[in-house]
Amino acid sequence: MKNELVIVIDFGGQYNQLVARRVRECNVYCEVKPYTTPLAEIQKQHYKGIIFTGGPNSVYDPASPHYEREILSLGVPVLGICYGAQLIAWLEGGEIEAAENGSEYGKVEVSARAGSLLFQDVPACSQCWMSHTDYIEEVPEGFRGTGYTKVCPVAAMECPERKIYAVQFHPEVMHTQEGTKMLSNFVYDICGCTGDWKMDSFVEESIKAIREK
User: Fold this and answer.
1) Are 163 and 95 in contact (CB under 8 A)?
2) pLDDT value for 100
3) What is the pLDDT at residue 132?
4) Could you give phi then psi for residue 177, rounded to 5 degrees?
């Protein structure tokens, strides 16, 4: 049985499995792969969407997990979360800075600018969960900022022409009030998924396959 697939690329974030769970709750099958997964392997799978997770590192550290810039040119929609957002900005030539106060952590009001598919039907101001020490100071060429907080000038950015989106906060956690809606907007309105996967049918198919083997 072939279902629509979304891949979560793990950059060491503590919520990587939760991201995948939230996507599956949208009736879209999702799998988690390490950042060491070769680009050629990702290309073979014909994913409908790619999600970069958060992580504890700084993109400027050579020892930090990185990825080939070419992944942003596959024509597959990409969503970067926290470190994943910073990685996209860094790969595309944006500016990343360390937060003056050390970090932005906890529940924060994020203001979203109108016109973004990612924030479609999301209030102009909503509570989100932040957990970062670096932030995007300047968006890359071709991108526009679509969200901000009192201390974070780029809480979200996008290049809709290339279907690349990024958020500094964590939409997958329950503390982000509209996070489920944002992820649903990504998989349905941006990736074009139809929601052809159900957990109960997946269990049935898996049991059937195991019995046949």
Assistant:
1) no
2) 64
3) 63
4) -55, -40
Are 91 and 60 in contact, with CB atoms under 8 Å apart?
no
Is 159 noted as a catalytic residue in this protein? Answer: no
Q: How many CB atoms lie within 10 A of CB 46?
A: 10
- pLDDT tens digit string along 126-151? 999 987 678 899 999 999 999 999 88
8 A C-beta contact, residue 148 and residue 155: yes
Is there a catalytic annotation at residue 170? yes
Residues 8-45: tens digit of each pLDDT: 999 998 889 999 999 999 999 999 999 999 999 999 99
Whether 172 is catalytic is yes
- The answer on pLDDT for 94 being more than 70 is yes
Tokens (6 digits) for 82: 């926290």
Burial (Cβ within 10 Å: 0-12, 13-18, ≥19) of residue 33:
middle
Given 30, 104, 159, 170, which residue is catalytic? Answer: 170
Amino acid at 194: T
Please report which helix (H) or strand (E) contains residue 93, including its range.
none
The one catalytic residue in 30, 82, 128, 191 is 82
Indicate the pairing of strand 144-148 with strand 156-159. antiparallel
